[in-house]
Each structure stands twice: as structure tokens, then as C-alpha cells.
């Protein structure tokens, strides 16, 4: 089998949107290492936006710059129209945040931690916090240190949502959870958020689970934005084409927006972006005996764009 990776990474264009988060040329360098590289994207209001990338792609660094937990090297970023570097206190009042492996006072009970966090938010809603506690099945007298990883993740979500934030930012919220708990946790988040009509921006490297809940996707690789679009548009634009030839398959490089090409015997399997009639015409010009076109799931698209997906 002959396999070619021919992805041409270029800054993707994104149409103007009513953006809750906006980044323009956002960059972060640690010494000689460029961790986030000229990142520009907009997160539409009311969307469930999945920020995808392999571990080390720059997702957490980006989120930390958005929340002014880390200085940026270059570029601009706003949340809810506020400058992330200068208006961070106002942003923190209006945004809910759940960090990967979020630290909490494990000697407190659930009720004590809720009472403690309440004092930081003028908009804290006691009734809503109680409703979330019931729905998430968190017992108030249990010490935080005695909660399972899944229960701690649910408690972090309660603390992030009880002040009714306009935007919820989640950084790898399901890390360390088993498959069933991860699925229930993500679907529970989206159900709660959709009821509230809020915006969710969450990072993840577990691609196959994201497809169940997201409606927008941004993919980052080595600090660079690879794509940013509504999920259904992305899935409609990337296709897999299987070409069968009467003789051994030729090398193929001149098909527009070719991401991957694999050859085995008389067959060539192509993965293409921006699929159109022009793509089909270019393929038929190669004179295959047969052409099959197939849709791809998000995980297959992710692999075509940035390489092997990771499990968590």
C-alpha cells in the first residue's frame, strides 16, 4: 500500500458571526517554541463550539490566554466584547469555567463548597444551584475528597453554572472519566445549556464523543487553526472517494484539496476537502473504471486533517 499525506494547511476563512469569543492573530511563544500560532476564530453566540486537537496542540494555552491566566505573545482576544487582558475581572463574573483536573478543597463538604463559591458571584442563583445539585445527584453532606472523578466533574460544572454565566468554557472536562460517565456528562451539559440558551466553548481530544453534542467545530494542530465551521458543513465538505482502475492505480496528486491518498493494487482511496463537481471532474479525468463517494464521521475527518485521533 502506498500512502501520501498531502494536506496543505492554510488559514481557514470564517464568515462574520455574532461572536461571543473572538480571536485575531492570537499567539503564544515559550522561548523558541511557538505553542499558539496566529490563531483567528470566532465562536458564534448560542453555539456548542468544540475546540479540537491532539494533546499538546495548544488548546489549554489558548483557553488560559482567553481567561488572562497566561499572557499572550501577540494578537487580540475578546469575550462578550470585553478585552481578555484588561477586562478579565468582569469576564470572570460573566463566564463559567471548568478546568482540566480542577482543584477543589477536598476537606469541604459539597454544601460548604457551594456556600464558599457563592460569595464570589453577585448573580449566584440559589434555586438554580439546588436544582443542579439534584439533577447531578450530588449529596450535600459528602466531602469533596470522597467524591468520584465523575462526581467531582459534576460539582465543578455546578459551580461554573450556578451564577448563570453567559458563556461556559470547559477545558477537557471529561479527562479521566470512563466511557459511560463521559458520554452522560457531556450530554447532560448540553441539555442544561440548551435549556438556558447559553454558549459553550469546550476543548477535547476525544473526537468521537464531540460529534454527539457540538454544532460548531474548530480544529487546531501544532498551534495553527486547521478548520473552523459548522459541524454539518464540515462533514458535507470532506468526502472519501474510492477509485478502481483496470490496471494498478496511478500516483494521484492533482485532485483539488486532496488531504490523503492511498493506493493498493487497482484501488486508490482519496480523502478530499471542499468536495464539489470540480473534484468529481478531476477524478474522472484519471479514467477510473469506477468511483464511489462516501461521507465521513468527524473522527475520520480529524484524522485526515491532523493525523491519528487519541483516546482519553
What does this structure look like?
The strands form 3 sheets. The chain has a 6-stranded mixed β-sheet, with helices on both faces. It is α/β, with parallel strands linked by helices and 312 residues long. The chain folds into 2 domains: 19-233, P-loop containing nucleotide triphosphate hydrolases (Rossmann fold), CATH 3.40.50.300; 239-295, no CATH class. The radius of gyration is 22 Å and the shape is elongated. It contains 10 helices and 15 strands. The protein is 30% helix and 30% strand. α5 packs parallel to α6 (179-196).
Structure summary:
The chain has 10 helices and 15 strands.
CATH class of the largest domain: Alpha Beta
Helix and strand sequence: EEEEHEEHEHHHEHEHEEHEEEHEH
- Gyration radius, to the nearest Å? 22 Å
Kindly name the structural category. alpha/beta
Provide the spatial order of strands within the biggest beta sheet.
7-8-9-4-10-11
Uncertain runs are 1-11
- Roughly how many Å apart are the termini? 30 Å
CATH topology of the largest domain: the name is: Rossmann fold
What's the CATH H-level homologous superfamily of the largest domain?
P-loop containing nucleotide triphosphate hydrolases
Question: What's the domain count?
Answer: 2
Q: Report the sheet-strand fraction.
A: 25-35%
Number of helices: 10
| Total E-strand runs | 15
